[in-house]
Amino acid sequence: MTADSGAVRIGLLGCGTVGQSVVRWLEGHEGDGKPADNHRLEVGPILVRDTARPRPGVDPALLTDDPARVLDDPDVSVIVEVMGGVQPTLDYLRRALQRGVSVVTANKQLMARHGPELFDVAQASGAELRFEASVCAAIPVIKVLRESLLAAEVTAVTGIVNGTTNFILTEMARVGLGYEEALARAQELGYAEADPTDDVGGADAAAKMAILSSLAFHSRVGIDDVPYEGIDDLQPEDLAQAADLGFVVKLLGVARSQAGGISVRVYPGLVSRGHRLAAIGGPDNAVLLESPTTGELMLVGPGAGGDATASAVVADILSVLGTHQGSFLHNALADSGRPLMPPDEVTSAFYVRLSVADRPGVLAKVASIVADEGLSIRTVVQSGTGDEARLVLVLHEGRERQMKAALARVSEMDEVRGEPVVLRVLGTGEGEP
Q1: Which of these ranges, 26-40, 178-192, 315-329, has the smallest mean pLDDT?
Q2: Is 386 exposed, middle or buried (0-12, 13-18, 19+ CB in 10 A)?
Q3: How is residue 339 annotated by DSSP?
Q4: How many CB atoms lie within 10 A of CB 166?
Q5: How far is Cα 224 from Cα 188, in angstroms, rounded to an integer?
Q6: Is 39 helix (H, G, I), strand (E, B) or coil?
Q7: Distance between CA atoms of 140 and 316, rounded to whole angstroms?
Q8: Residue 76 phi, psi dihedral angles, 5° rounding
Q9: Model confidence over 137-157: pLDDT tens digits?
């Protein structure tokens, strides 16, 4: 690209799938008169590890392995970070913001761990820090929370915020694939990385929920504050049993604000077929926002992919360039001082599957223990399997500590075979209309 003195230069940190999509978007709109504060956009220097590796549609002359070429270029007005990781990325962004250069990032792990620190640096220098692409790609949930719902009291954020796991669970339920088969299918179609650990283990969703809950509740929630579980231990028989009971299984991010403080969790849970989130299939994401002021708002769309993420990145670039310095709200991750609730005090409904000896009175003993711990049973399904029987219980809402205590006692019963399976049920208090 030939330098244009009337253009706004955009530097990039990273040029993988998303970075290449950003470059293609900027190159494709060069000179077409698209407004961005009366400026044209121009691709500037791009930091990469390997400058010799071909990147389709990217001018090799723009590539550099020297961070200073991007971070210290006096003509670069906005730096786009799509390289990922926490270090050296944190140092790079801090350095850029200290110089007063605005930053657009798609890095959820970085924002979930160091967002408040970076906002403090940005506010001190007058630079902008935008991060729409860090959560749910093209779905504008951050802008909605940060701007549109700023005056609303958001009480709950419930979401399917990881497209990889949603695709896997959809395939397991739709055609009865096992977990490994569904994962292989997701990798084949490009919905899962070669190393899917963060996705299937829940860490990716936990980072996103840390960001969303921080914005929704005007608090500082880090990824280490979010207990998370993944889908890698789910069994097809539990998905089938859930379907028989009128549920689908989703990897859920659930954040609530209540009198005792804030709770934020990620877990595979049962969702009633009548719930809005139940219909979200394939690799799509959805976030349900609840407020007594606005009622329920649900945002749905592609939560990953180069083009979808790039569209959010470019929208943030245009937003930065169209904002007068100092006029945008910097305190996006302000701390209202609301405490995080201890995980054991958080409430939920529960699905429990037990393999037990097929003897009279076993169900009565289990029910007695459950009741003794202050929990009540909503549904029971019992089926014989020879010398053993399968008990499936759906419990009404109770505290985590009550469920753990009941489970510990049930597990000690002579009639119980193997480890009980427990899943949470999205119910009253956790987003069910």
Answers
A1: 26-40
A2: exposed
A3: P
A4: 26
A5: 32
A6: coil
A7: 10
A8: -85, 120
A9: 889 999 999 888 888 899 999
Please give the DSSP secondary-structure letter assigned to residue 344: G
* Side chain identity at residue 423, one-letter code: L
**Which residues are catalytically annotated?**
208
Please report the sign of the dihedral spanned by the C-alpha atoms of residue 398, residue 400, residue 405, residue 406: positive
Query: Exposed e or buried b for every residue in 79-117, given b needs 16+ CB within 10 A?
Result: bbbbbbeeeebbebbbbbbeeebbbbbbbbbbbbbbbbe
Q: What torsion do the CA atoms of 90, 96, 101, 106 make, to the nearest 10 degrees?
A: -30
Residues 32, 34, 36, 39: what is their CA dihedral angle, to the nearest 10 degrees?
Answer: 30
- Whether the link from the prior residue into 343 is cis, omega within 30° of 0, is no
Does the global pTM surpass 0.70? yes
How many C-beta atoms lie closer than 10 Å to residue 60's C-beta? 11
| Side chain identity at residue 383, one-letter code | S
Distance CA 266, CA 284 (A): 17
For the chain, what is the radius of gyration of the CA atoms? 24
290-332 tens-digit pLDDT? 999 999 999 999 877 788 889 899 999 988 887 755 444 455 5
Spatial separation of the C-alpha atoms in residues 84 and 261, rounded to whole Å? 32
Two tokens, residue 369: 């223990």
Q: What is the pLDDT of residue 101?
A: 96
Sheet of strand 40-47, all strands in order from the earlier edge strand to the far edge: 63-64, 40-47, 7-13, 76-81, 102-105, 129-130
Nearest C-alpha neighbor of 98 from the set 129, 75, 67 = 129
In angstroms, the CA 143 to CA 147 distance is: 6
Length of the chain: 433
Residue 353, beta-bridge partner list = 392, 421
- Please, how many CA atoms are within 13 Å of residue 186, restricted to the half-sphere of its CB? 31
Residue 32: in which H helix or E strand, if any?
none
